[in-house]
Predict the structure.
Amino acid sequence: MLKNPFFADMADTRKKLVPIESVPTKTDIEQSHELIAPYIHKTPILSSRYLNELIGCEVFFKCENFQKIGAFKMRGASNAALRLPAESLQNGLATHSSGNHAAALALTAKNLKIPSYIVMPSSAPKIKKEAVKHYGGQIIECIPTLEAREATLNELVIKTGAQFVHPFDNYSVIGGQATVAKELVEELPDLDAIFAPVGGGGLLSGTALSAHYFSSGTAVYGGEPLGANDAWESLNKGQLIPVKNPKTIADGLLTSLSTKTFHLIKSHVREIVVTEEKMIVYAMRLIWERMKILIEPSSAVALAALLNKKTAFKGKKIGIILSGGNVDLDQFKFSA
Amino acid sequence: MLKNPFFADMADTRKKLVPIESVPTKTDIEQSHELIAPYIHKTPILSSRYLNELIGCEVFFKCENFQKIGAFKMRGASNAALRLPAESLQNGLATHSSGNHAAALALTAKNLKIPSYIVMPSSAPKIKKEAVKHYGGQIIECIPTLEAREATLNELVIKTGAQFVHPFDNYSVIGGQATVAKELVEELPDLDAIFAPVGGGGLLSGTALSAHYFSSGTAVYGGEPLGANDAWESLNKGQLIPVKNPKTIADGLLTSLSTKTFHLIKSHVREIVVTEEKMIVYAMRLIWERMKILIEPSSAVALAALLNKKTAFKGKKIGIILSGGNVDLDQFKFSA
């Protein structure tokens, strides 16, 4: 396999870097950014005069909906994979996910010319399964419970020898997601605050770390749906409390924080702002209609959180991370 | 009124240019571009590896969905208004339109701090009326027939003294729309072909003129819905044949060619490619899903036309004009 020229090129770079085993340092994030640069887009930052007037502050949208596979997850997945030693990659990559991390890991494996195995609940939308297949990932279906997902994955890893890459409870993944905010504050060094959505917390943790290292005057806020508000509850109670029966249109935010992301968010995030479904839908429509870009509901949660607190940010300069653009358009009727 | 600093500044520029009274020359289009530059965006050109692979050629999308008011119409409306003598503008601008030209004329009038009067059929979608109101336009409703629209407009012009700006049968408007393709070929001088949608024909005429003047090796094709195929029929029969009872999801393309646009298209457009509704919807979804940008159905007609003829363009370099992004999202259900 090392005869493949692409893979051989990579081996050189990878040799220098190893998986991140504790809270990513400033250098870890800088090195991660260099490492993944060939596999990601530097996404554009857009703004809208109409939205600025409506909200009463200057808002800058970091558009990860234009990222490869349509979401920021490409950053973390490629950082984690590229840091693994070449010999341990030979049997491929594996994960359980019904969403964007699945597609990101499948594309990363494709880039590295190795197999990928994705455990998905049988209930996952057809479009998500098709994305994984499109990138050459092998789907292993299981019943839609966390226990079944973990058990199926464990069996799979034993059987295939593939490397498991957790969607967020992994410091290399967090270090990769941190590059979104790094790009944002490098282009806009004087942001008063950044809002990012929070599900498992990989993006929010990374965002908070990058603000801390690269733009210490920028406060970081998490936006969370009321129907899946475990981050808000965990921070309030001071301990990790997973969400039971989450329900929200923001299908990327149904997961709960992990130990790693809980501690990072506790240390570096100013506040978790909870938002109702109505506000999420309103924020999503605003962005579709006014900016003419497609974002998924999870992305709209960050803007919804800012809208909830807009009086506190009057006249400020705010970054919003639009995490992805993978909407299931089957739910819409398109006809004459 | 001339005391307004914005308006006074403009008077200088406007003095030099007059309405374009015959087929726009190369110089007319160059001067139009300079004249309108402060009032328009230079829109981005995007591409998608996935779509290139699917279609089998290199496709470059000129994104007028990101234009001010969400459509290319801002170019023609501002060119026409800015070329009128200051004294004749004092009573404002008027038009009949249920679509993007209405919003473009209202915003142009707002920029010039003069009133605008828009005759709209009572059946026009709420969202279109709101856009006009948002830019300060006064809406005059009439029953939804072409006769009623024209009669209401005539009365209005007599009563107010406002200047009528036709949405496409106007050489200044055509000269403004020509700046879309001018920007496209300036950035990509070696396009084999450009596809643009055709309704009244202002955009397609202007596109054909700009290709002719600025990139003579680039052929221009029009995409037209089968349910409103008057351009195709008129070119085939060699005479202007207006469409009766047009029906298509591409609501910007319901109008028929005018004398001016018919003659320009006859002289400079290679072919009108007719497309069925199914292909328009498919093309629109492709762009939404793969490029994560919102376009209106009329914009999708150009890609649909290319898809119909893709074997003829294998390996070629093609420009597609995405005319606008004003979709009525009320037709979609957004909920958890």
Notes: Chain B has two domains: 27-71+171-324, 92-161. The two ends of chain B are 51 Å apart (CA to CA).
